[in-house]
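Write out this protein's structure.
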Amino acid sequence: MISELDKARIVEAIRVAEEKTAGEIFCVIAHACGDYHLVPIAWAALVALAVPLPLIYLTARPAGVIYLLQLAAFIVVALVLSLPMIRFRIVPKRRLWGRAHAEAMHQFLAQGIHLTEHRTGVLIFASVAERYAEIVADSGINAKVQPDVWSKAIAAMISAIKDGRPGTASWLPSNCAARSWRGTSRPAH
């Protein structure tokens, strides 16, 4: 998914960004947010339900043979559509992104990012299988940062990932809009 060198670069970039800003950044890269095993089964069921109709009207095959063909169609379609390279492409984008967004919110809370002293937690979340990225910022940061800053950071992150450079620091929010969220100095602990 991501090399050790890229992990080290991201950790270092986050450390540097945290020194320059009031933000406390946490990064999560998930392989997948769901398995979506029911989607291939649903598609296979639809195909299997459609198989008998032409066979009944266009052939003289007995019902037992048609049933076996229907069963075979269900099994073959379910197996083929269950391959990960296909399965994630047949799930509606809205479902993929909804699940990934829910996981981002879960991670924001589970990692305690919302518990920072000045509500300055920032989660950078990416899910590879869903092809989804999101930045979730707590109220202390969101009060000082315009929404387009997060959009630009996400666009830069997606571009870096597509170009095979996930470990570059160019997509960190502080590098995309340094003036926008350096407005507060890091609180002394």
